[in-house]
């Protein structure tokens, strides 16, 4: 009976996993098709963007699954379940570890090979539409730089020992032999961990830039809403009349045959470009005002306000918890050399208090963790969409509905992959013991030694990837402070800004008239 029940639970788990995977693929397809340009869309770039986005979302589900599996092996009284003997526990741990190996290897493949190759291929295609073989060769040549970086990171992680024995009489050959023995004993875990941790640091910078701003911009935009299309049309019509009158005044100077001055010609050119932009705005505003989607959005306006209030509460809860967790590390950790790692919690935070309460009602704690992970993903998407893609002070691409170039979509998916890697550490910062052990309980015996108690619990595989190298942990610690600062700055800026235009970012002066056809399909 127990075996039948376990098999039934396993089958149910696989069915839920299949449904979740299907839902993720459908969401990725809809999201990419919604934002990609119809004129510049390509099959390979579309497939790459959908696949990379799906990998990012699937990878984000690793943490809740890992926590659930280690918690599911034990009863509420602290004893292991009958089926969870040493062999079964080891098999489950290995399965989760292989899952991390697989997905993290796919992330390395996407970041260092596939996405760079497709990106450079289309960059070359825009410059040279002739020889496909030449485009492939050039893209491969540029991609080799990324592959070299990946190989260097793997080698550093594989052969730089974390714990070197202090033997003065050891020979150089013995030291080299030690490196290979250490690499073999870790089964490549250290090499992969170093590479992933290096990417996680880049993901931390992306999270500070985009996620922190998205956490403030997304809820406040939902609460404030957008301006009325009818009101914007009225203002736009007045602007068109004003520009036309200004053009007539300037052109009236040459009615008697006199040529315009160079200054007037420049002014006429600027006014004509401005007039074309305003007329495009007029067409878009007219389409939006008549569309069924606008009427639907107006009908669910109260629901958007409720969601906005919910998201801002979650953002503030997360920020306060992150601040208290970082303050705890600053006051009670061993310092920089240890990576600011602490065992236990001295200063509790709202999330740390909430998770043990939710553990009493299955599966509320896993729903909360999953919600936080998905909240990170969607606020990151919102931040990238609002800010665009930047390289320091240079704006590379804009993310616009129906008008996003293939290269911009590839950049967006790569950034999301990197942010997902950093998400696990962010959640660990909020609830370190929960991320390490889930809802496991231990048997209280006479010897209340910490090491003895911890030996009774199984550590999640996530923790093994997070804390292989202390200097990465130290970088994450300082990154958390930067994240809090950027969130507060973004919150102040978002509060001071007025309502967004109903066609925010969809009509620019550098757009062609052909772009109107791309966007019109969304407002019919």
TrEMBL record:
| Taxonomy, superkingdom | Eukaryota
Q: Any idea which UniProt keywords this protein has? A: Cobalamin, Cobalt, Coiled coil, Lysosome, Membrane, Transmembrane, Transmembrane helix, Transport
| Transmembrane segments annotated in the record for this chain | 6-31, 43-63, 98-122, 142-162, 189-213, 305-324, 366-396, 408-428, 475-493
Q: What is its main location?
A: membrane
Q: Which GO terms describe its molecular function?
A: cobalamin binding
One of the record's GO cellular component terms: lysosomal membrane
Q: Does the keyword Coiled coil apply?
A: yes
Could you give a single Gene Ontology term from the biological process aspect? protein localization to lysosome
InterPro entries linked to this entry: LMBD1_LysCbl_Transport, LMBR1-like_membr_prot
- Please give the coiled-coil regions recorded for this protein: 261-288
Write one Pfam family the protein is assigned to.
LMBR1
Protein localization: Lysosome membrane
- Note the topology in the membrane: Multi-pass membrane protein
Q: Which family does it belong to?
A: Belongs to the LIMR family. LMBRD1 subfamily.
Q: Could you tell me what this protein is called?
A: Lysosomal cobalamin transport escort protein LMBD1
């Amino acid at each position: 009976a127990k075996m039948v029940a376990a098999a039934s639970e396993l089958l149910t788990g696989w069915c839920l996993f299949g449904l979740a995977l299907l839902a993720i693929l459908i969401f990725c397809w809809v999201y990419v098709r919604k934002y990609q340009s119809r004129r510049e869309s390509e099959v390979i770039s579309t497939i790459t963007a959908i696949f990379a986005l799906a990998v990012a979302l699937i990878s984000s589900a690793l943490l809740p699954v890992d926590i659930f599996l280690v918690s599911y092996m034990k009863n509420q009284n602290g004893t292991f379940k009958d089926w969870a003997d040493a062999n079964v526990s080891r098999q489950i741990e290995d399965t989760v570890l292989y899952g991390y190996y697989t997905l993290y290897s796919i992330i390395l493949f996407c970041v260092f090979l596939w996405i760079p190759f497709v990106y450079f291929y289309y960059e070359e295609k825009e410059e040279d539409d002739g020889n496909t073989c030449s485009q492939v060769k050039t893209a491969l040549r540029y991609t080799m730089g990324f592959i070299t970086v990946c190989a260097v990171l793997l080698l550093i992680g594989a052969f730089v020992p974390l714990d070197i024995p202090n033997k003065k009489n050891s020979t150089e050959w013995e030291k080299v032999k030690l490196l290979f023995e250490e690499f073999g004993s870790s089964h490549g875990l250290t090499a992969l961990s170093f590479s992933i941790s290096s990417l996680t640091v880049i993901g931390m910078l992306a999270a500070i830039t985009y996620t922190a701003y998205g956490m403030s911009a997304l809820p406040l935009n939902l609460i404030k809403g957008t301006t009325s299309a009818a009101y914007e049309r009225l203002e736009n019509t007045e602007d068109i009349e004003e520009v036309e009158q200004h053009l007539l005044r300037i052109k009236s100077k040459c009615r008697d045959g006199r040529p315009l001055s160079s200054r007037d010609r420049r002014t006429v050119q600027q006014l004509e470009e401005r007039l074309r932009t305003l007329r495009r705005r007029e067409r878009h505003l007219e389409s939006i005002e008549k569309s069924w989607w606008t009427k639907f959005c107006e009908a669910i306006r109260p629901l958007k306000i409720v969601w906005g209030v919910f998201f801002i509460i979650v953002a503030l809860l997360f920020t306060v918890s992150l601040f208290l967790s970082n303050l705890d590390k600053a006051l009670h950790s061993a310092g920089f050399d240890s990576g600011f790692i602490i065992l236990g919690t001295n200063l509790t935070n709202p999330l740390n208090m909430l998770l043990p309460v939710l553990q009493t009602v299955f599966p509320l704690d896993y729903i909360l963790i999953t919600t936080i992970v998905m909240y990170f993903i969607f606020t990151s998407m919102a931040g990238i969409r609002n800010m665009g893609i930047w390289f320091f002070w240079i704006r590379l691409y804009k993310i616009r509905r129906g008008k996003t170039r293939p290269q911009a979509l590839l950049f967006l998916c790569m950034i999301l992959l990197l942010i997902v890697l950093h998400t696990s550490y962010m959640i660990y910062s909020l609830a370190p013991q929960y991320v390490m052990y889930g809802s496991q309980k231990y048997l209280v015996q006479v010897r209340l030694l910490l090491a003895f108690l911890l030996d009774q619990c199984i550590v999640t595989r996530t923790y093994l990837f997070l804390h292989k190298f202390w200097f990465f942990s130290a970088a994450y610690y300082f990154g958390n402070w930067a994240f809090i600062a950027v969130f507060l700055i973004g919150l102040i800026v978002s509060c001071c800004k007025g309502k967004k235009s109903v066609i925010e970012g969809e009509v620019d002066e550098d757009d062609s008239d052909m772009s109107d056809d791309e966007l019109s399909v969304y407002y019919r």
